[in-house]
Specification:
16% strand; seven-stranded mixed sheet; single chain; three-stranded mixed sheet; 291 residues; 14 strands
Length: 291
């Protein structure tokens, strides 16, 4: 059951430069996430979200966004998907993301969507309009296997469904690619998995893949992750504890070999490993009105 809340602010400025995703602003329309990925960093206690499975809907978000964009002097890319997925199942009911995209289109702002859902297709026409300025959709894909994907991302659509959505976007001229992160040590860190993701991305129209060969863990997210490892992958938690202890950055033990295979495969496939980004610019000065 979702809780409707009123937000005080909705658009945050991203520290510059953002060399990964090309964002100038960040937008979170919901609080909490229904996809319940076992590795999600947003569960960390530093974010002070008591129950990450309880979804809060910022019902005034679209109005706040319109007002915020009107006062921005710099037109830059607005990102979604940092603290939750903008296309959780609840988006079907509230359509906050869809309505926010319409505001971005009207205001002439570019967008970068990061999602694990094929629900993004519902906003194809709005994305086509925004793409006249700049629109990118990155699909989070950490495994090529639907079965494993359902264990580590239990509430998200299947990887195969995301790939089909990616293909539809690409066929409609939308810049699209993959955020290949995290790659979970001892579960997804095989060369075979990495090469399969590159191959599938190429087949479905991806123009770029952004990689990270490992996972980050801290207080709050680590405990939840370990509990899920015990439930679905007995014995793997102990390998994490032995190798990483309380470390935040947990790189795959064979990250160098994974990187070598990845970059070689992307070069052969003609897939970029950095995404083309929109360069922020000042708004055009408004003409004076005569009364």
């Amino acid at each position: 059951m979702a809780q409707e809340i009123l937000a005080k602010t909705i658009l945050n400025t991203v520290p510059q430069p953002d060399s990964w995703f090309g964002l100038k602003y960040n937008l979170n329309l919901y609080r909490g996430c229904q996809h319940q990925c076992i590795y999600c960093d947003s569960r960390s206690t530093c974010y002070q979200i008591e129950n990450f499975a309880a979804i809060q809907v910022k019902t005034n978000a679209v109005e706040l966004l319109d007002e915020a964009l009107a006062h921005k002097r710099i037109i830059g890319t607005v990102g979604t998907g940092s603290m939750n997925d903008p296309y959780m199942p609840i988006e079907r009911q509230y359509n906050l993301t869809g309505r926010a995209l319409q505001v971005l289109a009207r205001r002439g702002f570019p967008v970068h969507i990061i999602t694990k859902s094929d629900l993004v297709i519902k906003d194809l026409e709005t994305l086509r309009q925004i793409s006249q300025v700049y629109a990118a959709v990155s699909f989070s894909i950490t495994t090529a296997d639907d079965g494993l994907g359902k264990k580590v991302e239990p509430g998200a659509p299947l990887v195969s469904a995301r790939l089909k959505a990616m293909q539809t976007l690409a066929q409609n001229g939308i810049l699209t690619g993959v955020t290949m992160m995290p790659i979970l040590p001892f579960l997804e860190d095989s060369v075979e998995n990495i090469l399969a993701i590159v191959r599938l991305a190429k087949e479905h129209g991806a123009r770029y893949i952004l990689p990270a060969f490992g996972v980050t863990l801290r207080s709050g997210s680590r405990e939840f992750f370990y509990a899920k490892l015990d439930q679905h992958f007995p014995g793997v938690k102990e390998r994490y504890i032995q190798r990483y202890g309380e470390r935040y950055e947990c790189s795959a033990p064979n990250h160098s070999a994974l990187a070598d295979a990845f970059y070689s495969a992307c070069q052969a496939a003609g897939i970029a490993t950095k995404m083309p980004v929109y360069a922020p610019r000042s708004k055009d000065p408004e003409q004076l009105k005569l009364f």
